[in-house]
Design a protein that fits this description.
The complex is a heterodimer of chains A (790) and B (93). With 790 residues, chain A is of the alpha+beta class. Chain A contains 24 helices and 23 strands. Chain A is 50% helix and 17% strand. In chain A, a hairpin with a 5-residue loop joins strand 4 and strand 5. Chain B folds into 2 domains: 60 residues, Arc Repressor Mutant, subunit A, CATH 1.10.10; 32 residues. Helices cover 56% and strands 15% of the residues of chain B. The longest helix of chain B is centred in the C-terminal third of the chain and has 25 residues. The radius of gyration of chain B is 17 Å and the shape is extended. Classes of the chains: A alpha+beta (790), B alpha+beta (93).
């Protein structure tokens, strides 16, 4: 029977009963009873018509639906009687679910699993460690790579070098990041192209696949880009494909095939994916002997004594949040716990308030199962409403976060895409709905063990509340307040740390300070004298701009540079690690790093690569706390200068430096970290194929980029200029961005926690007040009993 | 079929069984509706020939008739079994 036939069938039954009643009445009248007596007798004979109908419905199999609809109607009447309770319950559940799921989804999407690549969780960087705390990236030549990729512990490998190339053909060349990848790369990453096709082993060297952002910025997202060509370092490349937005490996602008040679002087960095089910440790053990044999073939590409260490690609981003992540997840879970505790408090308080009502219903003949079913329906309805609203809040929350942090701060991988995490949503909805239902059933559970008389026991007993209930409330409230205080403390600590960093003494002035990065064309200026002359020419061309106060060669702090071994021969065996930076003499005035002692080397000394060094105050405190460091000799890098294809070494190849001055400390290990001993030497010692020019400007440095490009163009029309980065942006990206992110999250947690605690306290108080008021109204002796209580 | 037509009211049923089986009137309806639910009887409103108004008539369906045979034989077996237990001597003789 269908449910929509219910009404019809019921009317039919009604008619049947009435007709039989009339028949019985008629028969009885025919047997001589008076009409009135006949009617009563007929009714007596038929029995309780309501009961008959109920039993017949039972026979039809409708009873469960009927009871459900009754329960639902009753539940809605209950909610309309106390709308505030229902409202607070639903909102608490919704906020708890929404907050937990949104925050977890965001953290998961930007930190835990941000990559779209196939098997991304098993993709690793291969780091080689020797005594140096900074790792080397594994680099192999062609034949080695082929052998390496076949290892049974790996599920594929890719070789890639990121080069800086100039986009030529336009008036001013533009500096691009080009990923040269082994032909198997797109197969390895497993991300399908957005347009066109990927390159494979059969393609020529001169094809290019564009990244989404480059396609948007340089081709305005036009589909007809496929088949066009572009010029890199004055050579034509055919565009064959465009990658989707989330493919942003190494942040390259475009990808070209890596012409893999067996030239050991031309190795490429290697990344791999560990086979499913193989532990990192096992993979390291299996790969280590192969790498040792490679190191014998090409010793120049490996550190002397090394150990392989696998670093998962997501650990790089997570590493920036080291220490925060556990606290973050705990706090997120606390939020859900707080919401659940709040719902429990609400439900328990309400259950307590309804004891008398339930006892009354029991007295009127309701079975225990019937009462449980009724309360279950109420709790389930409230929880379901909370759950549904929670899903909506989550969706809105994720939309909000997507809009708020767009574009994603540079501390997160560019591949990340903030999206709803379905398992977490299901989990948090499940757990909160379950809490609501279990706590909603509590009054029915309680009553089974309570005598009716006790439930109706008015006055003193009720006023005091039952001991068990009170302790349950106390425990829940205490837990809630404790968790809230914990969240508030966390939030306070993160905000304080943020403020400390914002107001930290940097040792230099970041306002109106910026840097531009320049990379030489491959193979150009590869003689030392030519290269340093070229660098100096470019620096001078920028320095003469009227809006530039001063320009210097050297990078902006806080730049984290690999440390270099240092030894001080005069201090018997004193040695350690320093951060060594190569700068031009204008560096200190440009950044406004104060000179504390001695002098800075001159332009002539720079041009001759004089072995002169400036040390920072941290270095002076470490090695010469009570002596004068001026005139001392230090030895860098164990006295050996390593030159390779990317850098040339000043003639003389000597790493003994004379200390001529002491400068103030500037962060060189990252913001908020203690400043490490540092050494500044002339940039002419070991010029790389790229360099950075730091400029201090009048006013906003960003508007200066075009002028700088033109100045550089006048020196060398083929020289590309990279992006201009301001010191304030760098500070933000380095540490402030992270601190700000964390501080915002924790403030959000604390605020929600506080709201939950307030609403929890409020519900208990209002319940107690309501109960006292009711007792006062109903029980005329209530007042005296309160007196007795005291 | 005749039986079902006959018991259209409880008092009729009581008279038929010589007041031996006292029947709670109300229990008739769930029973009838259960039979209808199983498809053994079908109910229909019809005008009674002797009275000028409609009554609901329940008739055995074909399926019901088959079931009746089954139930009847089970009843007989039951009655026989009860008789054998209660009056074993009478059965033997």
């Amino acid at each position: 029977m269908r449910w929509w036939q219910i009404r019809k069938r019921d009317a039919d039954l009604e008619r049947e009963l009435r007709s039989d009643l009339e028949l019985e009445e008629e028969e009885l009248r025919e047997r001589g009873l008076s009409p009135e007596n006949a009617r009563y007798a007929a009714r007596r004979a038929l029995g309780n018509t309501a009961l008959i109908r109920e039993q017949t419905h039972e026979a039809w199999g409708w009873a469960p639906f009927e009871r459900l609809s009754q329960d639902i109607r009753f539940a809605f009447r209950q909610f309309s009687k106390s709308p505030r309770f229902a409202f607070v319950c639903v909102i608490t559940l919704a906020l708890g679910i929404g907050a937990q799921t949104t925050i977890y989804s965001v953290v998961h999407a930007v930190l835990i699993d941000p990559y779209p690549y196939r098997g991304a969780m098993r993709m690793v960087h291969l780091h080689l460690y020797d005594k140096d705390p900074a790792p080397y990236d594994l680099a192999l030549d062609g034949p080695q790579f082929v052998q390496f990729a076949k290892s049974p512990v790996l599920d594929g490998a890719v070789a890639e070098d990121v080069y800086t190339m100039a986009l030529t053909g336009a008036e001013l060349p533009e500096q691009l990041q080009v990923g040269r990848m082994s032909p198997n790369a797109f197969d390895y990453f497993g991300v399908p192209v957005l347009l066109g096709r990927e390159f494979g082993p059969s393609d020529s060297d001169k094809v290019a696949v564009l990244s989404y952002s480059f396609w948007k910025s340089h081709f305005a997202g036009r589909a007809n880009v496929i088949g066009q060509s572009l010029q890199l370092d004055r050579q034509n490349y055919a565009i064959i494909g465009v990658m989707p937005q989330r493919f942003a490996w190494m942040g390259s602008d475009l990808y070209v095939p890596l012409a893999y040679s067996s030239d050991p002087r031309r190795p490429a960095n290697v990344y791999a994916r560990v086979r499913a089910g193989v532990s990192d440790q096992l993979a390291e053990q299996a790969l280590q002997p192969m790498l040792y044999s490679f190191a014998k073939e090409t010793p120049a590409n490996f550190p002397q004594k090394f150990k392989l260490h696998l670093v998962h690609i997501n650990e790089i981003a997570i590493g920036r949040f080291k220490g925060f992540l556990v606290v973050l997840f705990l706090s997120v879970s606390f939020l859900l716990v707080l919401a659940c505790v709040n719902v429990a408090i609400l439900m328990l308080a309400r259950g307590e308030a309804r004891q008398a009502e339930i006892a009354m219903r029991k007295a009127l003949g309701a079975g225990r199962r019937r009462i449980v079913r009724q309360l279950l329906t109420e709790a389930a309805l409230l929880s379901a409403a909370g759950g549904c609203l929670g899903v909506l809040v989550t969706l809105a929350g994720i939309r909000l976060v997507q809009n708020l942090i767009q574009p994603l701060p540079s501390i997160f991988p560019p591949e990340a895409e903030i999206a709803l995490n379905l398992p977490v949503l299901i989990f948090s909805v499940g757990i909160s709905v379950l809490t609501g239902i279990v706590c909603g059933l509590w009054p029915a559970m309680r009553l089974s063990s309570t005598e009716l008389r006790q439930a109706f026991d008015g006055g003193a007993h009720k006023l005091a509340g039952r001991r068990g209930t009170r302790s349950a409330h106390t425990v829940l409230l205490t837990a809630q307040v404790a968790l809230t205080i914990l969240l508030l403390a966390c939030s306070g600590a993160t905000v304080r740390r943020l403020l400390q960093l914002v107001h930290a003494d940097l040792g230099y002035e970041p306002q109106d300070l910026a840097s531009v990065n320049l990379v030489l064309r491959e193979g150009s200026h590869d003689q030392w004298a030519d290269r340093i002359h070229y660098f100096e020419q470019i620096r001078e061309s920028i320095a003469i701009d009227p809006n530039v106060l001063s320009a210097a060669i050297g990078s902006l702090p806080p730049s984290i540079i690999d440390s270099t071994p240092v030894a001080v021969p005069a201090l018997m065996g004193a040695s350690g690690q320093v951060i060594a930076q190569q700068v031009s003499p204008e560096y200190f005035t440009t950044l406004r790093i104060p000179l504390i002692l001695g002098r800075v080397w001159t332009a002539t000394e720079t041009a001759h690569a004089a072995r002169l060094a400036l040390i920072n105050d941290a270095m002076r405190r470490r090695y010469w706390p009570h002596a004068d460091p001026i005139g001392q000799t230090i030895v860098l890098n164990n006295g050996v200068a390593n030159g390779n294809v990317w850098r040339v070494v000043a003639p003389g190849d000597d790493q003994h430096f004379l200390v001529i001055g002491v400068v103030g400390d500037a962060p060189n290990k990252g913001l908020g970290e203690e400043v490490s001993p540092g050494v500044y030497v002339p940039f002419t010692m070991m010029p790389f194929d790229g360099f950075t020019v730091v400029v201090r400007t009048h006013g906003d440095p960003v508007s200066l980029l075009q002028a700088i490009k033109e100045h550089v163009h006048n020196v060398d029309p083929g020289q590309a200029v990279g992006d201009l980065r301001t010191a304030t942006d760098l500070l933000e990206g380095d540490s402030l961005g992270r601190e700000r992110f964390v501080a915002r999250l924790f403030s959000g947690f604390a605020f929600l926690g506080l709201a939950f605690a307030v609403s929890g306290l409020y519900s208990i108080q209002s319940y107690l007040v309501a109960q006292r008021t009711r007792d006062g109204e109903h029980d005329p002796e209530g007042t005296s009993e309160v007196g007795n209580q005291r | 079929m005749e039986l079902l037509l006959a018991i259209r009211s409880a008092s009729t049923f009581q008279r038929t069984t010589n007041d031996f089986l006292q029947m709670q009137h109300g229990s008739l309806y769930p029973a009838l509706h259960r039979l209808e639910q199983r498809g053994w009887v079908s109910g229909k409103w019809e005008t009674a020939p002797d009275r000028n108004r409609e009554f609901k008539y329940y008739r055995l369906t074909d399926k019901g008739k088959k079931q009746l045979v089954v139930e009847e034989s089970q009843c007989k077996q039951m009655a026989a079994a009860v008789a054998r237990v209660m009056w074993p001597a009478a059965e033997e003789s």
